[in-house]
Amino acid sequence: MRRNRQTDKNGRDERDGGWGGGPDDGCGGPGRFRTRLRTRSRTRKPAAPGWSGLLDPGEVAVATDRRGRESSRYPKGRGPRPQTFLPWLLMGIGALSNIVSGKDQNTWLAGLGLLAFNSIYIFVVFSAFNPRYRDSRVPLYGFAALTAVTYAIALTFGHAWMLFFPLLSLASGAVRSLRGKPHFIVLIVISGSAGTIAGWRFGDHWMSTAIGYGTFFSGMIAATVLSLFDTIKQLDATRQELARTAVEKERLRFSRDLHDLLGHTLSVIVVKAEAVRRLAPRDVDAALSQAADIEAVGRQALTEIREAVTGYREGSLGTELDRARSALQAAGIEPVVRESGPPLPPQASALLGWVVREGVTNAVRHSGATRCEIEVRTDASAGRARLTITDDGRGPAAPSATPATSGGTGLKGLTERLAAAGGTLDSGPDGRRGFRLVVELPVDSEEVEGEEVTARQ
């Protein structure tokens, strides 16, 4: 469909029949146009199904559409199926020919034996691939019955019936409970007895060797191929689990960053708005200054949220200390900030900046304090940085009055971040009154010395 370009009043280029459609877009109005677009997006095939082409029938990889809902769009698997084992039954065509031509002594007994072998063989193969029975003993019991039938018809009729031993070995490769050392022992027994019976029946050592060789390797190859495809399925499941874990970690990071960002910012905005309300009747200039701070904090919050969404936000301890002073002063709390030691590496500085943000937010919102002290000490020789935040407020609330903190937010989220970096967080009452927050974080002495040299320059 060809669209005519138009220009709106702001000089921007538009086209008729956009996402909402239009009365003259040639598609019958906005509803039909929107439906057609949605239909195309839902029926589009995935670009890279990965390992999904190797899955069993009925098992499909899980995809998600634009709304995050799971959908089965990938094609069904093309790996080994039960039907893959059925063409090998043609190896019994010689036995069938003997039955039809009457070469066997008892035709009815031979036909019954052939029917029993084929029926049990199909049962073993299909039960071994059935997700409901493949890990149970049902295929093993079927394989035991198939073994008994194979030995019976081989010892009774011989000649063309000896080719059922490779089929027996092939079926053993599909039984999961025989994988590993038990299967190897079973193959040794079956191939050895098959070669012995063939030598007794044919009286030819070369024929005996061929029957034993074919019996052993048919089962070994079948088991190896099926084990390989099982490994591929496990790798595909692991890949999908890793992808889900990565998504969950990213969601946790984003929720934690959003809590730490908005919790502090909104608290500062509320405190400064209250300051504007108090100062407006008697000091307009001071009220306007607080209002300007609210605007600056809001703009900074927008920038930080954008950076948090893209995952590139890295705070600075110095910046957070400056903001802490401003927030505490606006809340009527006297800030006392002490710093000692060389500058911290960027990663440690960003992590401690989060701690300062959360600690000061809690002091402003919950403590009711009049004084808050923040002390940062860096010991380059010991490779440790220590941050202490104390206030003279009400102290920690009673356990029954404190709501449960959800994972990834508040002090619990900070504890997880610090633990990932090898640090610790300890919080609790500071003597009779107040609250104390202590954080220790390991830092690389070489990086600290490098930051100190850079600061001097």
Automatic annotation (TrEMBL):
Gene: desK12
Biased composition (Basic and acidic residues): 1-17
Entry EC number(s): 2.7.13.3
Species of provenance: Streptomyces rimosus subsp. rimosus
The protein, known as: Sensor histidine kinase DesK
InterPro entries, alphabetized: HATPase_C_sf, HATPase_dom, Sensor_HK_TwoCompSys, Sig_transdc_His_kin_sub3_dim/P
Keywords: Kinase, Membrane, Transferase, Transmembrane, Transmembrane helix, Two-component regulatory system
Lineage, opening ranks: Bacteria, Bacillati, Actinomycetota, Actinomycetes, Kitasatosporales
Residue ranges annotated for the Histidine kinase/HSP90-like ATPase domain, each copy included: 347-445
Pfam families per UniProt: HATPase_c, HisKA_3
Gene Ontology molecular function: any one: protein histidine kinase activity
Coiled-coil intervals: none
Bias type Gly residues, positions: 18-31
Region annotation (Disordered) ranges: 1-56, 390-411
Transmembrane stretches, start-end: 85-102, 108-129, 141-164, 184-203, 210-229
Compositional bias (Low complexity): 395-406
Composition bias type Basic residues, residue spans: 33-45
Root EC class: transferase
